[in-house]
Amino acid sequence: MAKKLMKGCEAVAEAAIQAGCHYFFGYPITPQNDIPEYMSARLPQIGGCFLQAESEVAAINMVYGAAASGARVMTSSSSPGISLKQEGMSYLAGAELPCVVVNMVRGGPGLGSIQPSQGDYFQATRGGGHGDYHPIVLAPSSVQEAVDLMQDAFDLADVYRTPVMILADGIIGQMMEPVEFHESKNTRALPKKDWAATGWDPKSGRARAVVNSLYIEVDELQELNDRLQSRYQVIRDNETKAELYNTDGAEIIVCAYGTVARIVKSAINICEKQGVKVGLFRPITIWPFPEKELSGAMDQASVKKAITVEISAGQMVEDVRLVVNGKKPVEFFGKPGSYTPTAEEIAEYIMKSREA
Amino acid sequence: MQTVFKKTPILTDAVLHYCPGCGHGIVHRLVAEVIEELGIQDRAVAYVPVGCAVFGYKYFNIDCVEAAHGRAPAAATGTKRTDPNRVVFTYQGDGDLASIGAAEIVHAAHRGEKITTIFINNAIYGMTGGQMAPTTLVGQKTTTSPYGRDKDHCGSPIRVAEMLATIEGSAYIERVAVNTPANIIKAKKAIKNAFECQIAGKGFSLVEVLSNCPTNWGMSPVESMEWLEENMIPYYPLGVKKDITKEV
Amino acid sequence: MLWTNIFAGFGGQGVLLIGQLLAYAGMYEGKNVSWLPSYGPEMRGGTANCSVVVSDEPIASPVLSMADCVIAMNTPSLDKFESCVNPGGKLFINSSIIDKKATRTDIEVYYVPCNEIAEKLENPKVANMAMLGAYLEATKAAKTESVLDALLYKLGEKKAKLIPLNKEAIEAGAASIRK
Q: At the topology level of CATH, where does A243-355 sit?
């Protein structure tokens, strides 16, 4: 298929449709409005349904209902709206329902800015709502990668019966890049959704569906949590994804995800011109965090330290420290809010840090 | 031997957890009988609330989904919109629907969402232990209005049926009560009308059911039925508030 | 080949569009491209800008703090972005409405009377295309034909009749900076 120049938000929406998502419930908030706008135009053409909900709270609960009835469904929002969706995310996780949630992150806390930010890393990777759960979180760094991850996002959600979050930012959402849509291919065997509430014929042979996250007895709740935790372990063991760029024999490993990782690549090129070999570790799944991949890079004798770069006060750096576990220094460079560091600033920090 | 009564198969054999004399059991049975009579078990999906009816999924012998507090109309929308052939209803109490879920119910009605809501108004929060609801009557004592509801402090009770009847997208709205056999028969007819309204694709339908809460009102079941008659019905008048199903 | 560019002007002057046309044209010619707008409430009447990268290699960062070329369609844009031109880079100034000169001496500066060119063509809307023409002439970052293909795609067949006018504007813009 020929390449098309598309805005990230629109490309994500189209990729979701091509992945078989025909239902979308959302609410306007900048910088992700192009997703609901695109869905509102396309879904009626293919017999799907777009609905603008009265709030993010309602939208995520519409997703809950559609997922409870077995549909491939999605919503999108940006940070303040994602906060409102956290109640629903917890219920989706508790009721073991698959869905995809896109967060085009903006600066916070509060109303914050509409510029890019990475301040929602903790909220996304730690669960965000109440209770012990994790959504799977995918962090694309280009429009093409966002497109490529959509099919897998829906498949992962179905296989593991869990919400999957795409954690991007306003740059990915608003930027236009050439994209190619590949023939949609399910690479995973998808389980039958015989648990879905669709209307029950007692003669059908299936059990009556009860979609629920209420387990009032301690033992029953334990059973749910044990099931979730063992599923999370399978996800940790099998589903990590990372890009390692220029890491072989590097002196410093820079850790960054999403848009920032691309700026880091430019910074690495600047350092290279000054004769310093710097590598990039870029997690594509930020939950599960690619521990083995990072360890492999950090354990090289050539590597002296890690530097984590984020548009935050330092969130992913905690996961990096957990992996490095004190064996080598881990530094942080970045600011909270929406200040996107330039390649020159990152390169300057790396060079200074090297001398320190 | 002649069979004079048979329990509807749309209720499971699980023993109801409701307090003795509570109206929930009556309404459960009415809803289940209507589903049986309309022959829609295989396309019905129930959304149960957070409140006393939180275990509704144990009793309705159909596919059931437990919604977050107040969110049942939004979640039910997801089930309905992904297959309009389904018959979807929410079963909600006054805290769930009129307080935390006010936005969701208003907008379900506003969209003309083709779902049915069974709204139990017993003027109190039951499950959490008798706190004040938006529907608690002025002067009524609850665990969070121990001196009686003061309208200058926390407003007057909301008349949900009348409010929703003003919304363009609502198609059938009726208020009924389950305090006497005659009223129970009328309540069942209203519930049936509401489901038929949905099946005919007319729009949003809701039946507000005035019910009792002997435990949290601190009364015997009989006293509570009388209290409902004397105090609730004058403030919450019974009857059809809106019906577009008969319009040509 | 790598061109990093910032297109800036008033909202409504069409700077986002000419940036997009360059990105499309680059893509049609098999290059890697990215187009990143400033976004938010400043869409109309305020300042708008976009960063466009056209490159033979995969693009590392689409976010530009410095650029090889800056296109300034109005005075606030010149004030904001003159310092962002890489040494040896190019600065394009819409001399029809910017009455000051560039202060940098380490870059090439082009003065393009965009609005006058458009007025001569009897359509003030094509001032942006005159600027794009000057940019293409100075950089050869993409071919005029590719840009026109992109414009046809954006306009759709119904508005295809506008192509000759836009082509004229591009050519007039290019001619204006030829020595």
A: Rossmann fold (3.40.50)
Please tell me the distance from the alpha carbon of residue A257 to that of residue A292, in angstroms, as a whole number. 16
Answer whether residue C45 shows pLDDT above 60: no
Q: Pull the structure tokens for residue A223.
A: 């059973």
C33:A178 CB<8 A: yes
> Do residues C60 and C83 lie in contact, with contact meaning Cβ atoms separated by under 8 Å?
no
Q: Which of A338-347, B92-101, C126-135 is predicted with the least confidence, judged by mean pLDDT?
A: A338-347
For every residue of B201-237, DSSP letters joined together read T--EEEEEEE---HHHHTS-HHHHHHHIIIIIHHHS-
Q: How many angstroms away from the CA of B85 is the closest CA of chain A?
A: 10
Task: Please tell me which chains touch B, using 3 or more CB pairs under 8 Å as the contact test.
Answer: A
Tokens of A119: 């301040």
By three-state DSSP, how is residue C9 classified? strand
- Residue to substitute from C28, C63, C66, C154, interface A, most A β-carbons within 10 A: C63
Contact A269 C60 (CB under 8 A): yes
Helix or strand (DSSP H, E) at C49:
strand C47-55
- Residue C27 forms contact with A (CB below 8 Å): yes
Tally of structural domains, chain C:
1
Chain C residues touching residue A111 (CB < 8 angstroms): none
The letter for the amino acid at A250 is A
Which class does domain A4-179 fall in?
A: alpha beta
Domain ranges, residue B236: 24-243
Instruction: Read off the pTM.
Output: 0.94
Does the ipTM surpass 0.85? yes
Q: Which two tokens stand for residue A329?
A: 């220094």
Percent of chain C with pLDDT over 70: 96
How confident is the model over C87-139, as pLDDT tens digits? Answer: 999 999 999 999 999 999 999 999 999 999 999 999 999 999 999 999 999 99
Whether residue A273 is predicted with pLDDT greater than 70 in this model: the reply is: yes
B66 touches chain A (CB under 8 A): yes
The domain that contains B200 carries what CATH number? 3.40.50.970
pLDDT one-digit tens code per residue, B69-91: 999 999 999 999 999 999 999 99
Domain ranges in chain A are: 4-179, 243-355
Residue span of the structural domain in which C147 resides = 2-177
Per-residue model confidence (pLDDT) at position C43:
47
Q: Which residues of chain C does A3 touch, with a Cβ-Cβ cutoff of 8 Å?
A: 27
Q: Tell me if A184 sits within 8 A of C45, measured CB to CB.
A: no
Between CA C97 and CA C108 the distance in angstroms is 20
CA distance A231 to chain B (A): 23
Residue B53 lies in a domain: yes
- CA end-to-end distance (rounded Å), chain A: 50
> Among partner residues C27, C39, C63, which is closest to A259 by beta-carbon distance?
C63
Buried-exposed string C110-130: b where 16+ CB fall within 10 A, e elsewhere: bbbbbbbbbeebeeeebbbbb
Residue type, A109: P
Residue B161, domain member (yes or no): yes
Burial of A19 (0-12, 13-18, 19+ CB in 10 A): buried
The alpha carbon dihedral of B124, B128, B134, B137 has a sign of: positive
- Structurally, chain B folds into a number of domains equal to 1
Given this chain, do its domains A4-179 and A243-355 carry the same CATH topology? yes
What's the CATH code of the domain at C8? 3.40.920.10
- B6 is a domain residue: no
